[in-house]
Design goal:
Length: 219
């Protein structure tokens, strides 16, 4: 499914560009290299951990005006929907800096992949960071595998490979899931894979400690 979505979206980009004048990529904040973009995220997290945030000093009126007609994020983050993971705040970034996709368990669906393809192909983001977090309820529920109401159990199949790989330790499974999803993004999307191969994009995995506030890159 993901492979088909990646190819379909890539084809759609070409068709739209020729028939509907698809917007050209923008490169204001995204003039950073992939490594520099990732370094900026981690530097911002350092400021967050040390309570020296600078994003609140930006003039929000000017930011809103500058981002009214277009967005120019330098990074994209695939995060869990957990309310304890405020992505922009964690990286000390403000309006228009991060293209955020969120889903419980931070895994790559066809819709998430399509959104991130838009972020890199059109908006020019230079890094995609897949970020799991401590105490992830989606991963915990997958480990337990108990019957739940509604459609919550639809999350389980996407996260199960990480549990199969890392076992029932919640932190280990959460980290494994972030790494698996990052690898999936880098391989299943022809758009993302191509940009990575050209050195124009970096895909990385990370783990957020909700108590310490620190983000750790996973190798």
């Amino acid at each position: 499914m993901q492979l088909a979505a990646g190819g379909a979206f890539a084809g759609w980009i070409g068709t739209a560009a020729s028939q509907f004048s698809f917007p050209k990529p923008v490169f204001a904040q995204s003039t950073l290299t992939p490594d520099a973009a990732l370094a900026e995220l981690m530097a911002g997290n350092g400021r967050f951990v040390n309570r020296n945030i600078t994003s609140d000093a930006h003039d929000l009126a000017i930011l809103k005006q500058n981002n009214a007609e277009k967005q120019e994020p330098f990074a994209a983050v695939l995060s869990c929907a957990d309310s304890r993971v405020p992505v922009e705040l964690v990286f000390d970034q403000t309006i228009g800096h991060i293209f955020v996709t969120r889903i419980a368990g931070n895994f790559a669906t066809s819709e998430i992949i399509a959104s991130l393809e838009y972020g890199v192909a059109v908006l020019g983001t230079k890094v995609i960071l897949v970020m799991g977090h401590a105490g992830c309820g989606a991963v915990k529920a997958t480990i337990q595998g108990v019957e739940v109401p509604g459609q919550i159990s639809a999350l389980y199949p996407h996260i199960q490979p990480a549990v199969d790989q890392a076992g029932t330790n919640l932190e280990a499974a959460t980290k494994a899931n972030a790494k698996i999803q990052a690898a999936l993004l880098a391989e299943s999307s022809t758009v993302i894979k191509g940009l990575v191969k050209e050195g124009k994009l970096k895909v990385a995995a990370a783990y957020y400690d909700i108590v310490a506030g620190s983000v750790t890159l996973l190798s």
